[in-house]
Amino acid sequence: MAATQRAAAQTHTAVLGALSIAPMTGYALREQIRDTLGHFWSESFGQIYPALAELEQQGLVERRETGTRRSAIFAPTADGITRLRELLAEPPRPSSPRNGVMLRLFFGRQLGVDACRDLITQTRDRAEAQLVEFELARRELATDDDLRADAPFILLTVSAGEHGARAAIAWANDALASLSTAESTTSPLSKEHT
Amino acid sequence: MAATQRAAAQTHTAVLGALSIAPMTGYALREQIRDTLGHFWSESFGQIYPALAELEQQGLVERRETGTRRSAIFAPTADGITRLRELLAEPPRPSSPRNGVMLRLFFGRQLGVDACRDLITQTRDRAEAQLVEFELARRELATDDDLRADAPFILLTVSAGEHGARAAIAWANDALASLSTAESTTSPLSKEHT
DNA sequence: CGCTACATGTAAGGTGTTACATGATTCC
DNA sequence: GGAATCATGTAACACCTTACATGTAGCG
Hints:
Two copies of one chain form a homodimer. Chain A is mainly alpha-helical. The first copy, chain A, is built from eight helices and two strands. Chain A has helices at about 10-20, 25-35, 45-55, 80-90, 100-105, 110, 115-145, 150-185; strands spanning about 60-65, 70-75. In chain A, a hairpin with a 6-residue loop joins strand 1 (about 60-65) and strand 2 (about 70-75). In chain A, helix 2 (about 25-35) crosses helix 3 (about 45-55) and helix 7 (about 115-145) packs antiparallel against helix 8. Chain A binds a DNA duplex through helix 2 and helix 3.
């Protein structure tokens, strides 16, 4: 039944959701998902196009030919919005986490203190860069009139990103400090209890 | 060459790393990864056993038969430790995030405010439960003498979990508050600018 | 002696990315 | 007209989970 590949239900949610905010091409869809949802969601071409094809076949999105370009704008149908609401109402499946930085720090004894420090510093730098991006997103949400209705909800996710990034920065500073003291108390012979 | 299935390099890292802390059976390996690394890493049976087989074939772990039980204890060889250090030194590939809660909140306009509130509350509850687990892990790390050398590094990851969980709780409270005010300012006709 | 936990593995299927192939449009 | 970007799609492969199959050890 599926032409070549079946996209997962989760992809359908992301695609329908994005189109519910603004109709767009498959190409733009991927860019939006990367740039806007990028901090907590990702989809690749290989998922998006099959998903669009399936959704169209099921009558959940419709293809609007554009006069000028050869490209097609996809928009959700009424059924598509209904389906989106169903999908959103399903309990989110907790995705199994895979944090490469934490894995490396966990075995930091083998990796070495210096490399651990580098990892932590890089993590902090990334978090600081994210904080800037979130600030930007906040401003865009405030100004863009098309997003007026969705903005209060999108802001929740931006806020989560900010909290997470600030936590990462605070953790990194703690971690760097604790690595320094650990090093200075481990190497000497001193082994005082406090 | 690979008998049935090739495990990913990341799995090799986790398996070798866990065995570097304490040799154990494949079964125990899975339990340790679930219980100890569970907050930021996951492996399933289908990954662990093939990985062990490959690592054994490459001479990176050795199988020690136990007298009493029919089970085998796996321990890393010297080459295995070398390989582990190589693997740990590789830059962590940023895994594409897939946060189902954030995806739902992002499209919260379609999901509805009440369901959003539920999601946020559940997230907060989970974070609070995690905080308790982290406190427990901290105590275990302090008491278990076998972990003395690894504990300073493992503590870094526990600390990261705590920072993250506290951030999640703070965010959830913010988010619930902002949903309440949004609801009361959206529904009435008033549309004052400040 | 039957139940539960321990233990090892395989097979099938679902999931997701990358690389490739192809062409149109726009801008210089 | 050539380069960059927009645009659509496929195929191959890497990855990972689940369910199944099988058997042992310990305990009440």
